[in-house]
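<discrete_fold_record>
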Amino acid sequence: MTPSHTRISKAVIPAAGLGTRFLPATKATPKEMLPVVDKPAIQYVVEEAAAAGLSDVLMVTGRNKRPLEDHFDRNYELEEALHRKGDESRLAKVQESSDLATMHYVRQGDPRGLGHAVLCAAPHVGDQPFAVLLGDDLIDPRDPLLARMVEIQAQYGGSVIALMEVDPAQIHLYGCAAATPTGDDDVVSVSDLVEKPDPAEAPSNLAIIGRYVLDPAVFEVLRKTAPGRGGEIQLTDALQALAADPALGGPVHGVVFKGRRYDTGDRGDYLRAIVRLACEREDLGPDFRSWLRSYVTEEM
């Protein structure tokens, strides 16, 4: 497979999940709209795509996800009210989300796993390489992981996945990669992928995190991929097939990420992500860190 010279411009964000771990907050509010400090989690993800040069974003949604569309649309009444009040700062924040990218939406219908969600994007993506960003992983903008993945895809062709070293005892919580080094310190060649392996049988401690840059050949592989764990079509299974036989759609490489990642996948990690991001904000951090130190001291 020759390296790709097609500029990647499309990102796919699966957002059809029910968010059951955050009930009752997600009974009527999509989990992607839960605030992380003062922005919904999903906005951080779209900002990351835009910063990497991906100007066309497709969200794969489901029922009760209309607030996602509203958030990235214009709100003329609110904007006019803020303009009349002369509140230009808040007006800019409101307009920011609608100016990030060209947004598109498709419903997944019957949610049958991440692989099925990606397959729903096939008519929109066409025959171009594209990125997939999962909303539970927030990547700090100071660590441009996605831009690096796009660069590696252009260099090697095929598909690129994001990997992160984890405690070997925790590898059973992730998809795991069998990999060998390349000439780049942060890039590995992936020969096999295992979904949530037993730690004793895991090929490495390299866990797959929620960023992918995929060759469009993945769609045909997904169409032939049988449902796996939980009756769902697993993206990991399709990538495993591509890694085992590069003739299907190029090699699979991994970028080993050592930067700042905020996991919002469960309640504890969500709270820790808010605290970490709030502490690092110039406008909130000094006062918040001072309060946090005193609070922790009092509770010890």
Summary: Residues 34 and 40 are 5 Å apart (CA to CA). The two ends are 58 Å apart (CA to CA). The mean pLDDT is 92.
